[in-house]
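Usage

Read records sequentially. Each one opens with the input sequence:
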Amino acid sequence: MPSIDQSQRAAIVKRLAKLSVEVMVLPSYVDIMANGGFESALRPVTPDELLGREKVALDTPEIAKAYAGRTVMVTGAGGSIGSELCRQLLNCKPAKVVLFEQSEFALYAIDRELRALTAHLPQALDIVTRLGSVTDRNRVQSVVREEGVEIILHAAAYKHVPLVEENELEGARNNVIGTQTVAEVAFEEKIERFILISTDKAVRPTNIMGATKRMAELVVQDFQTRSTSTKFAMVRFGNVLGSSGPVLPLFESQIRAGGPITVTHEEVTHFFMTIPEASRLVLLAGAYAKGGDLFVLNMGKPQKIIDIAHRMINLSGRSVFDPQTGVGDIEVKVIGLRPGEKLYEELLIDGDSLVATPHPKIMRAEEAHLSQIEIASMMREVSVAIDRSDSDHLRALIQSRVEGYHHQTLDERHA
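and closes with the structure output:
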């Protein structure tokens, strides 16, 4: 039923999951025409339809005031979050969107998609593609100057927890040095606002990825203390369905292969949100920015990964294998936490620091930050660790500078 809203669809999906049949979504008339017929337009239930979350409206005065007629640059424009920010921006009527991306193919793909979408817009919109790394200061500055950038949405980051755990120096180069580089250009060029896309993994992190994102937040907070022109802000949220990191697409492929589904721990829970919803809320939060803001998105209730695995198996028309009876189709196998992974994520370091904003799904948090001298010292040490290829030095620095950082032992991961 294509016309029903997300919460109604989720309620129906929940009821159908008990029937041991594959659940499909009926196509709209537009889908049928686009896909060459009814059968080819039928599709399985996607993971985001398990959430039952409503769309966030973008037709608000704050959005129109913040982005309409402006030149907006999105770093990491070809990534899962960056590309969706670009799509959502089209509805905000900017004058120009600058796509900044280091992956040639990713930049090509989002550019091609956006040009197809803008062909149907009533207003003129300029799409500019720029290859480059966020760690290359000269390149970032020349693009900002040449294109007259007024707003930066900084989505570029390495975010895959196990990969960054094994490549910590490159994680720090991209996530910490890259953020400092782009924020410094924003500061010097006196652009209107700079919004950092952050993560719940920055809160009391057990992994290098989360720790580098917390360091990036500290860097942005520091720039705000010295800025009289640019509004610096951060938006922190949890896992988004459909991005390159989360586990649900893996579950889908494991089910198609006949199993087993691999779950790291029976008790592991995550916050989940769809990419379009997260991106809309990021744009709204950016519009609310007064300077130095740390926005936290309402992610709903955290969900057990193993429960979602069971639901996805049932929605595929199969059953969960019971090792005691030998009955069932798909086995769910617990394999232990991966390096840097913890059982549950948090959105706040201080749970009492939330302040309301005009939107119920966006809260403003107040958290401690380091002094300018401490930040300068931290950044010098990050550069030293990278220049010397000294990962032990980086980990020691994170231990001393990132509040709540805890490196998990092998025994803790398998506890």
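Summary fields computed downstream for this record:
- The CA atoms of residues 233 and 292 lie 5 Å apart.
- Confidence is low (pLDDT under 50) at residues 410-415.
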